[in-house]
């Protein structure tokens, strides 16, 4: 078990979700089950579980996919969960692609710091993605253990980089020695693109 905890969250636009409204009479067989489900739902209003209060912002639940040319952004946080200070804490983050390993962290050139109880060391990382395929964010945390030895651990976060557009071209030769090029550009993302 480690003295510090590592949390990583990809920074993307939150999605809008609507609360799930299921009404059921208390006398019905599934009544208690459904009503308890609504009470545990984070989007329901206390004591008004059957009232639709509108939409809520939902943070991303997974790393998901990213499209070529987008900027990959994430928040990396190391938190001291012990009851004593932790010495010599540092974060290192690299992005591993099929062909290279890119250092990302702004903390890499800084000297290790001490984290007091409940203190955090955090970093926001931005990187423009230029390669298709599988990418792995490698986060390494190093710190001084209770036994005055250097301890470290790594976490890996895998995501796919996909192409956002599909381009098909056709060439037409006219009789007047002119050449016409037809380009069909198709958006293959899950959202709209502005060209």
From TrEMBL:
Q: Which GO terms describe its cellular component?
A: TRAPPIII protein complex
Domain Trafficking protein particle complex subunit 13 middle per the UniProt entry, residue ranges: 165-195
The Trafficking protein particle complex subunit 13 N-terminal domain extends over 2-161
Q: Which domain of life is it from?
A: Eukaryota
- InterPro entries xref list: TRAPPC13, TRAPPC13_M, TRAPPC13_N
Quote the protein name from its UniProt record: Trafficking protein particle complex subunit 13-like
